[in-house]
Write a structure and sequence with these properties.
The protein is an alpha+beta fold. It is found in: Cell junction, Adherens junction; Cytoplasm, Cytoskeleton, Microtubule organizing center, Centrosome; Cytoplasmic vesicle membrane. It comes from Leptosomus discolor. GO terms for molecular function: ATP binding; microtubule binding; microtubule motor activity. Belongs to the TRAFAC class myosin-kinesin ATPase superfamily. Kinesin family.
Length: 765
């Protein structure tokens, strides 16, 4: 019955859950329609803005065709929006008038309600049957109690009857014994007497039956007597055995008592012996003390003349001290003057040296940065994460990384008992904050506004902190969000002269498949293609691009992309990134005074961590992910080796990762690698491999970086006066026929063309 009740409760809960699910489905359907309407409105607004922008920027036949296409698209979107609004209104009217009369969910709900009422009726019937059974069990329990009372009474009566019979048996035995002891004086005379009385016959039968009953009782008593005698014999045997054991225990006790007395006597002797030895040693030590005391007395006698001499010297020194303050004041006065003069000279010298040192440091940094810029070296920063509880305890979790106190670019690793040193551009210790890390890279981020391509990617083993450095947390953001905040700040600062547009795209490479993290279908695979304009740049057709205008837009984009990214738990990291994540920020600028247009691209890459399958415990799909990750990182190593050795062919197309990073690694971008390492002893092999790879990357020279800028128009005479270094590249872009595969003109030719174009522009006003 209880199991049936539990089943009924479960059935009721299941029906309630189905009803709640149906209601949630209806609610989500209406919300989805509303979101579609809002999306169509947003698309309509964007198309209208695009039309207005194209009208203002473009002209001629192509602009009109594009305008017509956009107008058709706008009309189509309006029709779709009207249709969706009509569907929403129709659904609302249906819900208000007769909500889903023939809906399958309502029919199922009615059936479930009927089933629920039937089950409740069955439950009530079952409860009634259960009450009847309880009443019947109570009645039977009362009857059983009465039977037990009767049984107890019968047992008591039987015991009294047995006691009475035993007394009568004892009396009979005594009578028989007394009769046997009396001498036989009666002679037996056997006569046949005919008894005609019925009472006499009945008495005779009763006496015979009673005699037979007494004989049976006598036999039973004899049997009981024999059993008692056997029990008495066994008890006597047990008592004899117990007496033997008691005697044995007493003997053992006497023997232990004797041993204890012997041990106490031996301990007493040892104590007396130790006391005698201590007394003899004390006598010897006392004798030595007396001898030392005699020597001290002798020394005191010899020290008395020395004391007199010291007293005389003390008196003379006392007289000198009395005259010392005057001499000391004169000496201090002269010493202060000399020291003050020396301090002034030292201060002036120090100020001059400090000024020269600071100027030298600034010049050295400037020269170094200029040299790195001209060579196009990939800058490499290292960051060491702190020891965490996931590293465990014991020797394997000890710190194996140390730093140089005088040089913040040197790092030491203790691997297999040997110390290995590495030199990078900058090393951040575990206590370095996210703000300190970003201060070192913000110069690269701001150059994106000036039209340069910038790439920052994090490299290291799984669990080394790459995602934390690039993305961070909500309370402590990483490079990605701080970079966009800095871009917004710089854009606001230049808003008086420049118009900027910032757009964001996010993608990931999962199992050698490029996926759009901001698209409607994140699982759809994308391809990497060359730009059709002949510039040699790469682009991804179909990649979603959002225009962001505030920090709130950034947070929404990051949240949406983070939800779609593939992360799983392994033995080495609870939230291990199973894909390479790329955040692409495009900054387009227009100088309103000169018409100069710039396009800068900032690529922020969070690489998946290299891992050993044996340590990470990857199986099934995790194993396949780890194999693709290690393969792509190996392809990145091959590309770095080819660039370092200046080979003619660089295998960029061996992996989607290297193919997508081709623009950042082929000399047309300012590139920074942030290598993340773990300080734990158990991870020294992976740390050594990461730091060696970082040194190889640091030695790669990509060549000077070019700025992506074009001159749209020259509206005034003042705007024509530009520097020679800026005008010549722009004029080269304006000259027809200059494209890839043609011979570059000489500087003299460029200067001549610049002068001729300047004259034409001056004459045309």
């Amino acid at each position: 019955v209880m199991a049936s009740m539990a089943h009924l409760q479960e059935e009721k809960l299941r029906l309630q859950e189905k009803l709640a699910a149906w209601e949630n489905h209806e609610l989500s359907h209406s919300l989805q329609l509303q979101s579609q309407v809002e999306t169509l409105k947003a698309k309509l607004l964007e198309q209208a803005q695009e039309i207005s922008r194209l009208r203002s920027e473009l002209g001629g036949t192509d602009a009109e065709k594009h305008r017509d296409l956009l107008a058709a698209e706008n009309e189509r979107l309006r029709q779709e929006m009207k249709a969706c609004q009509g569907e929403v209104q129709e659904l609302r009217r249906q819900q208000q008038a007769a909500p889903c009369r023939d809906c399958t969910h309502l029919q199922e709900n009615a059936g479930l309600q009927e089933r629920l009422s039937q089950l409740q009726r069955e439950a009530e019937e079952t409860r009634a049957k259960l009450a009847e059974l309880d009443l019947e069990v109570q009645q039977k329990t009362n009857r059983l109690a009465e039977v037990e009372l009767r049984l107890k009474d019968s047992l008591a009566e039987r015991a009294e009857e047995e006691e009475r019979l035993s007394r009568r048996l004892r009396d009979s035995q005594e009578t028989i014994a007394s009769l046997k002891s009396q001498p036989q004086q009666i002679k037996y005379i056997i006569k046949t007497v005919e008894v005609e009385s019925a009472k006499a016959k009945q008495a005779l039968c009763e006496s015979q039956s009673r005699n037979q009953y007494l004989q049976e009782q006598v036999g039973m008593q004899r049997q009981v007597l024999k059993e008692m005698e056997q029990q008495l014999q066994s008890s006597q045997k047990t008592a004899a055995q117990l007496r033997a054991q008691i005697m044995m225990y007493e003997a053992e006790l006497e023997r232990a008592h004797g041993q204890m007395l012997e041990e106490m006597q031996a301990m007493e002797e040892e104590k007396n012996h130790a006391i005698e030895e201590a007394f003899s040693r004390a006598q010897v030590e006392m004798k030595a003390v007396h001898e030392n005391l005699a020597g001290v007395r002798t020394n005191l006698l010899t020290l008395q003349p020395a004391l007199r001499t010291l007293t005389h010297d003390y008196n003379s020194l006392k007289r000198q001290v009395r005259d010392f303050p005057l001499l000391l004041q004169e000496t201090l006065r002269s010493a202060r003057a000399e020291i003050g003069h020396a301090i002034e000279e030292v201060h002036s010298t120090n100020r001059e040296l400090l000024r020269k040192y600071r100027r030298g440091v600034q010049l050295r940094k400037k020269c170094h940065n200029e040299l790195v810029r001209l060579k196009g070296n990939i800058r490499v920063f290292g960051r060491v994460r702190p020891i965490t509880k996931e590293d465990g305890e014991g020797p394997e979790a000890s710190n194996a990384v140390s730093f140089d106190a005088d040089d913040d670019a040197v790092l030491h690793l203790l691997h297999k008992g040997k110390q290995v040193s590495f030199e990078l551009d900058k090393v951040f210790p575990p206590q370095a904050s996210q703000e300190e890390v970003f201060q070192e890279v913000q110069a690269l981020v701001t150059s994106c506004i000036d039209g340069y391509n910038v790439c920052i990617f994090a490299y290291g083993q799984t669990g080394a902190g790459k995602t934390y450095t690039m993305e961070g947390t909500a309370a402590n953001p990483g490079i990605n969000q701080r970079a966009l905040q800095l871009l917004f700040s710089e854009v606001r600062g230049k808003a008086a002269d420049w118009d900027y547009a910032i757009s964001v795209s996010a993608a990931e490479i999962y199992n050698e498949a490029l996926r759009d993290l901001l698209g409607k279908e994140p699982q759809e695979k994308l391809e990497i293609k060359l730009c059709p304009d002949g510039s040699g740049q790469l682009y991804v057709p179909g990649l979603t691009e959002f225009r962001v205008q505030s920090v709130e837009d950034i947070n929404k984009v990051f949240e949406f992309g983070h939800v779609n990214r593939a992360t799983e738990c392994t033995n080495l990291n609870e939230h291990s990134s199973r894909s390479h994540a790329l955040l692409i920020v495009t900054v387009r600028g227009l100088d309103r005074s000169t018409g100069l247009r710039t396009t800068g691209k900032l690529n922020l890459v969070d690489l998946a961590g290299s891992e050993r399958v044996g340590r990470s415990g990857a199986e099934g799909s995790r194993l396949r992910e780890a194999q693709h990750i290690n393969k792509s990182l190996s392809a990145l190593g091959d590309v770095i080796y080819a660039l370092r050795s200046r080979q003619g062919h660089v295998p960029f197309r061996n992996s989607k990762l290297t193919y997508l990073l081709q623009d950042s690694l082929s000399g047309d971008s300012k590139t920074l690698m942030m290598v993340q390492v773990s300080p734990a002893e158990k991870n020294t092999s992976e740390t050594l491999c990461s730091l060696k790879f970082a040194e190889r990357v640091r030695s790669v020279e990509l060549g000077p970086v070019s700025r992506k800028a074009e001159l749209a128009s020259w509206p005034s005479q003042e705007q024509l006066e530009v520097t020679e270094g800026l005008l010549v590249p722009f004029l080269f872009l304006l000259v027809p026929g200059n494209c890839r595969g043609h011979v570059s003109p000489s500087p003299a030719q460029l200067s001549g063309r610049a002068a001729s174009i300047r004259r034409k522009l001056q004459t045309s006003g």
